[in-house]
Amino acid sequence: MGTSVQVTPLSGVYNENPLSYLVSIDGFNFLIDCGWNDHFDPSLLQPLSKVASKIDAVLITYGDMLHLGALPFAMKQFGLNAPVFSTEPVYRLGLLTMYDQSFSRKAVSEFDLFRKGEGIVIAPHVAGHLLGGTVWKITKDGEDVVYAVDFNHRKERHLNGTVLESFYRPAVLITDAYNALNSQPSRQQRDKQFLETILKTLEGGGNVLLPVDSAGRVLELLLILEHFWGQRFLNYPIFFLSYVSSSTIDYIKSFLEWMSDSIAKSFETSRDNAFLMKHVTLLIGKEELDNASTGPKVVLASVASLEAGFSHDIFAEWAADVKNLVLFTERGQFGTLARMLQADPPPKAVKMTMSRRVPLVGDELIAYEEEQKRLKREEELKASLIKEEELKVSHGPDNNSSDPMVIDSGNTHSPLDVVGSRGSGHRDVLIDGFVPPSTSVAPMFPFYENSLEWDEFGEVINPDDYVVQDEDMDQSAMHVGGDIDGKFDEGSASLILDTKPSKVVSNELTVQVKCSLIYMDYEGRSDGRSIKSILTHVAPLKLVLVHGSAEATEHLKQHFLNIKNVQVYAPQIEETIDVTSDLCAYKVQLSEKLMSNVLFKKLGDYEVAWVDAEVGKTENDMLSILPISSPAPPHKPVLVGDLKMADFKQFLASKGVQVEFAGGALRCGEYVTLRKVGNPSQKGGTSGTQQIIIEGPLCEDYYKILALNVQLLGLKTLAISYIRVELKLWATGHGILERNMALWNLSSLAGAQQHFLDSKLLCMLSKSFFFTDMHSDYRNFRILISLFQMDFGIAISVSV
Fold this sequence. Notes:
InterPro entries: Beta_Casp (IPR022712), CPSF2 (IPR027075), Cpsf2_C (IPR025069), CPSF2_MBL (IPR035639), Metallo-B-lactamas (IPR001279), RibonucZ/Hydroxyglut_hydro (IPR036866), RMMBL (IPR011108). About 30% of the residues lie in helices and about 25% in strands.
């Protein structure tokens, strides 16, 4: 039986709710993503609360609310106690995202939600979308379970595209249908419209508000604006307003190796850091924006949903001005103000709750201080009672053995003997005529001998005495300065360190929406057409669809149901589906004698080898493989591994051919050149294709070198069973004439199963393709030797 795989959605199927899925592989439970929405709705976490204690590991895909928002809450409230795996940018930027969310809520409300398998291999791969975004590949017994949601195949300014296309035939692929019904314009067209819209608003005297996330897609927008402002020499100010804006940019500057090739290359060659921005000002407080220039400006403010944060307050101020523009770059979550404003047509007025925190004064302050004193006294009394109980327990109820003030009346020894006999424990203080009650605890200052326990390693200690409490960790982390070690900006730290008594004052108002509202897709996800193309190329054996509207999920499901050899699943919340592979996998034990004679070859992420052996069973019923007693039958030739040009050079030199490396190619003699193209080990573990290209004019050296190279490949246990000839003729002034895919079977040509090519056979094949109308303009042949994992072919093409 194959590897057992079950998938149970906990949130985010047939809707756009946060993502959270339980994936069990041979009994090992993975929680992949642990998201929450901007409403912090506890009801969404009910399915997670039921399975939190059973989770063995957590995999986080992206550092935004929809993928990790509920993780702190689940660890605190649900007892989730499992190792969490993510890329470093996801961890760092996710931390900043959660702090920004916490600060935004704490500033306007009493928010305290975030106060504090054997043989399984997990591997992260590039997903695009967000910095450090991950496609998770979980491998067990040679079968791959791939989790890829919100991926982006497009290369952007700060990110490379996903490597999902390099995967081939995984056992299970879990992906989303979020964008299945959407289409996107080209990047150039989208950027042009985006920048022209902003510039038109600024030139008209209006302000531009971009509600953004804290540390995700905002990075792409910052680079676009920075580059455009530098090209056009614009003077309109750009502000990035967030509680963690400067900390975010400080982190980003150290993660260039996680970004696009162009950014990394620019830093390597000229030490040019793309995030040393000249036109963007970082702000951490609304008052800083109020004190800035009063003219037209661009403000990127968190939070993207407009439910809280600086974007919420700025929208309330700017919405009534027809010259202003609110430009949404991502779809708002359901039920949020942003989603309401993105409706068609948008509302003309919205009700908003404006909240702010103010210090307590007068009678309220006095009442608060008295209440705090009362609570402090109750805590002290409670602590003293607990301490007294602990002392009673430590001394025990037995008067004779534990109470240092009681003399054993049945003891005939003198008081001095009593004192001396207890030298190893309590040294009692005795007063004539006074016997304390049995309930008293050491009223006369007893002496306790300090006896330490020792073992072979030294003094025995209690590890709990050295554990740093959560409160201490919070205080130690809140340093001012915003450096790269996880410290925060001064304004952000003040929100946590501020102990002044305060309260939240709220009022509702109706905001007239007269400003322009525009949505442009900068979410960084592949569109529907690309998703279908990529998934068709990956060709999973079983496809599980999650996260997307019911329409999008059904659309993608029906599309792939029409494709053969793909099983499609779209489970509901808490519905467990069994996607165990139909393949059979066996574990066998190889004897040491057999292992010493096995020659392994690298093939993608694996090593393969021919094994000729006899199968038996050990005492514990495990399959055992032993060497065979008779000679092994011949194997069908298979080429495995990388072709090395150095081997070609050494072999040709031994045959008397002058060879040298020049410009990345192997020059053979005066006219012939050998080149190698392709990569045998593509990312994702699939097997690629290599080609040895032989270039030069038709001459004896050409055929000789070709035959020698084929002979070299034959010496590597590879023989040729067929020849594929592809002829393309480019006639000068006569258009294109093509003759493709003529196939010869060597056994029919020469009466044998497998043969090596020689110059005569090549001449025969090439001449058989000459036509009576062929012009003298054809001078060179180009012969490609294509090496595949399980076969071998030669393609002959004619070019001018």
